[in-house]
Write a structure and sequence with these properties.
The chain is mainly α. It has 2 domains: 26-226, Alpha-lytic protease prodomain-like (Up-down Bundle); 235-309 and 324-336, Cation efflux protein, cytoplasmic domain (Alpha-Beta Plaits, 2-Layer Sandwich). It has 9 helices and 3 strands, in the order ααααααααββαβ. Strands 1-2-3 form a 3-stranded mixed beta sheet, with helices on one face. β2, α9 (278-293) and β3 (297-304) form a beta-alpha-beta unit. The longest helix is centred in the middle third of the chain and has 30 residues, at 164-193. The two termini are 25 Å apart. Pfam families: Cation_efflux, ZT_dimer. This is Cobalt-zinc-cadmium efflux system protein. It is found in: Membrane.
Length: 342
């Protein structure tokens, strides 16, 4: 391949890393105080709720406590991930440990799903054969939980929610708040009417919230691990926009993925018409990607197109051959300014 026109030379790499001030990950000391406050509120109340739930035999309170345990775990994992993500890249970890938060988010999502399955089983069993439940303690404890979760949600709302972990913890606390409201209603129903099955019904509401949050975390973290393009960003549209540049003849090997939360990245091989200014084209395309798609972490390999690629009827790159020695095994569709298929 041509030695000139390749996306990032060393000088541009330094400019890209420092001159544009990209924020790659969460700073080491960012948001720890807010997450620590939320963790203290949740952990303290969770211990109280477990004791009350065991004393009065309320599955709804125990399910709320289990949900709060996952909230606390998600905050702990977020704090650990922040510290790991702040470490500089070295050795074989060329991105550092920025995906530690994605690992913890997926673990948290799987835990939510497992707990939801167990609680659903227990709730159905208690619907069939309901035990005695003291409505008064359930109501009082649930109302206290509403207050605690409002405080924890406020703390997390002050943190950096571009992190999948922090956003996941925030959504968990919100779900827990809704669950406590449901539990309070169940306690009131039991207290006023003696309908003890209301406790199990409230548990099923909690299960539904846990399933929603768990599936969302597993889905979002799974997309990152599978190197999928960020949700809402169409790689074919991006490739067509790049190929529409007046000096570009073809774009292929286009990849868009997410390094970690809020850090999308792109790489592509761009062929420029003979005589075109590769460096000028690269700068134009980088500006387009940053301004229109928020893609600022980009690597563009820019070469002059071989003459045979411009010949009518020539075998295009990516369609069973390699034109001019470029990309013998191309990945993904080929984008050109003229009509083409994806």
């Amino acid at each position: 391949m041509n030695a000139h026109g390749h996306g990032h030379d060393h000088e541009h790499a330094r400019e890209h890393a420092h001159g544009h001030g990209h924020a790659h990950g969460v700073a080491e000391d960012a948001d720890r105080r807010w997450l620590g406050l939320a963790l203290g509120l949740i952990a303290g109340f969770m211990a109280v709720e477990v004791v009350v739930g065991l004393l009065v035999g309320s599955l709804a309170l125990l399910s709320d406590a289990a949900h709060m345990l996952t909230d606390a775990a998600s905050i702990v994992l977020a704090l650990v991930a922040m510290r790991l993500a702040a470490r500089p890249a070295r050795g074989g970890f060329t991105y550092g440990l920025k995906r530690a938060e994605i690992l913890s988010a997926q673990a948290n999502g799987i835990t939510l799903l497992l707990l939801a399955a167990w609680l659903a089983y227990e709730a159905v069993r208690r619907l069939v054969s309901p035990p005695d439940v003291a409505g008064g303690p359930v109501l009082v404890t649930a109302l206290a939980g509403v207050v605690v979760n409002i405080g924890a949600a406020w703390c997390l709302s002050r943190a950096n929610r571009t992190s999948l972990n922090v956003e996941g913890a925030f959504q968990h606390v919100l779900n827990d708040l809704y669950a406590f409201i449901g539990t309070a209603v169940a306690g009131l129903v039991v207290l006023l009417t003696g309908f003890v099955r209301a406790d199990a019904i409230a548990t099923l509401v909690v299960v539904g919230l846990m399933l929603k949050a768990g599936c969302g975390l597993v889905r979002d973290s799974g997309r990152i691990f599978l190197e999928a393009a960020p949700a809402g960003l169409d790689p074919d549209e991006v490739g067509d926009r790049l190929a529409a540049h007046e000096a570009v003849t073809e774009v292929h090997d286009l990849h868009i993925w997410t390094i970690t939360s809020g850090q999308p990245a792109l790489s592509a091989h761009v062929l420029v018409e003979p005589g075109g200014d590769c460096h000028a084209v690269r700068r134009d395309l980088e500006h387009l990607l940053g301004a229109d798609y928020g893609l600022t972490h980009t690597t563009l390999q820019v070469d002059h197109a071989p003459a045979e690629l411009l010949t009518v009827g020539a075998t295009p790159v990516g369609a069973g051959g390699s034109a001019g020695g470029h990309c013998g095994e191309p990945h993904g569709p080929v984008h050109r300014a003229r009509a083409h298929g994806h």
